[in-house]
Amino acid sequence: MRDAPRPTPTRDLDTPEEIYEMVRRFYADVAQDDLLGPMFNDVAKVDWSEHLPKLTAFWCRALLGITGYVGNPFQTHARVHDKRAFTPAHFERWLSLFCDTIELGWVGTNALRALELAENVARVHSRQLMGETVSLGPKGGSSCSPAVCS
């Protein structure tokens, strides 16, 4: 459940503070999700106080070119997959929640780039971990609305 109703987005993901807020909102939803929550909380045993700054650094590097992220997202996901296998539904739900988070909070060039990167991450990780690429939307198109660019 989301914190509270949010106003129509007017800001882009153009500062570390905006990116931190996006990461915080998104992973609050992930942690509480019936499908994803158990993977993060029970299998991966994520320490959210440690993980959120790392995820923020990842997105700051990807969207703003800020150095500081250290890690290998694929290796981390492979270790979880070895404990309990991911399914296409996991990747589809992750991407759906990500799209919802962006569309409810941000608009602009970096918001669109974040959606594109998230789709790419879901596509590549699903292929590498499961041997199949998840279906991301109608006929393989974007699973997110283009309204985020308005």
Question: What descriptors fit this protein?
Answer:
mainly alpha, 6 helices, disordered C terminus, single chain, globular, Globin-like, 150 residues
Can you tell me about this structure?
The protein is mainly α. The chain contains 6 helices and no strands. The chain has helices spanning 16-32, 36-43, 48-64, 73-83, 88-105, 109-130. Helix 1 packs across helix 3, helix 1 (16-32) packs across helix 5 and helix 3 crosses helix 6. The longest helix is centred in the last third of the chain and has 22 residues, at 109-130.
Count of DSSP E strands?
Answer: 0
Question: Can you summarize the main beta sheet?
Answer: none
- Characterize the overall form: globular
The termini sit apart by 26 Å
Q: What pattern of helices and strands is seen along the backbone?
A: HHHHHH
CATH homologous superfamily placement: Globins
Q: Strand fraction band?
A: under 5%
Secondary structure blueprint with pairings:
Layout: H1 16-32, H2 36-43, H3 48-64, H4 73-83, H5 88-105, H6 109-130
Helix pairs in contact: 1-2, 1-3, 1-5, 3-6, 5-6
Structure summary:
The protein is an all-alpha fold. The chain is built from six helices and no strands.
